[in-house]
Structures are given as structure tokens and as C-alpha cells.
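Q: Here's a chain of 160 amino acids. Please give me its 3D structure as C-alpha cells.
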Amino acid sequence: MSDKRYDQIYERIQESFPNACVLYIEEVINESLIAAYNTRKEQLKAEEKQLFHGTSDNLINTIAEMGFDPTKNKTALYGYGVYFAKNAKYSFDYMRSANEVSYMFLADVLVGRLTTGKLRSKTYEWDNNVDNITNPTIYTTPYPDGAYPRYIIAFHKNAK
């Protein structure tokens, strides 16, 4: 018998990434990260979205244990912060792996006041950068506790 949550996640992945070869989906339970996330949620009065985040295989456990770190972003196309995508296929390009398995997260992300500018120091004014203000598909959060790594999704690396 399958779990409805995992079936729904798999269906979301298939919408933008129909050739994905999902090996497993694992829920992350980290009480300290959940508490920090919920505190930030109260402060921002923000809505939540579940968004994808592709990453290197060597960072999966660190993110699950310590959370997302916005200071690690070096690209900043849409501004400072941790990047998340509405579509799994977009995050696939950011999965780096030395073996046959690649990973991404499906994260709970706080979405508050949006801008398309280069959010760097004005976190008192804006909460997220997006690629398109009317129909965003890419979101950033400058807050280390602005997202919770809810699920780890493992893919066969050669899935296209």
C-alpha cells in the first residue's frame, strides 16, 4: 500500500519531469529546524509553498540536519538567498552527484512580500525574490529558517 503524500509528490514531479526515475522519497523530521521555521512563519505572516531545491549529494545530510544556508549561494541571478523552483525539472539541473543517485528536496518555503529586484540587505522590506512577480516559478529566501527541507527525493542520475 502506498502513502498518499508520496504519491502526490511523485505526481508533482511527473508534471514537469515526466522521465524522472524516482528511487525513493524520504521525509525529514528535524524538530529544531521545524521550530525555527515556525517562528519565522509567525514573524512574516507568510504563506507556505512546497518547492523543489536541487543540490549536491554531499550536501543532503548537512541540509537535513542544519537547514538551508543562504550564504552558500554564489550565483544570485535573482538576488541573494536559497533558490527554490515550482517545477522539479528546473531543480534537476542543480543536482550534482559523483555516483548513480542524485538528490533534490521538496521544501516548505515561506512566501511573503515579493520583489524581482536584487534582494540583499533590504530583508525588512521584501521577503522573497522571484523570477516573475505575476507568475513566479523561481523563489529565493534570504532567511536560513525561511524554508524547511521536508522531503529528500532520490533520482537515478541518468534520468532525463
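Q: Can you summarize the key feature?
A: Helices lie at 4-16, 31-44, 60-66, 88-92.
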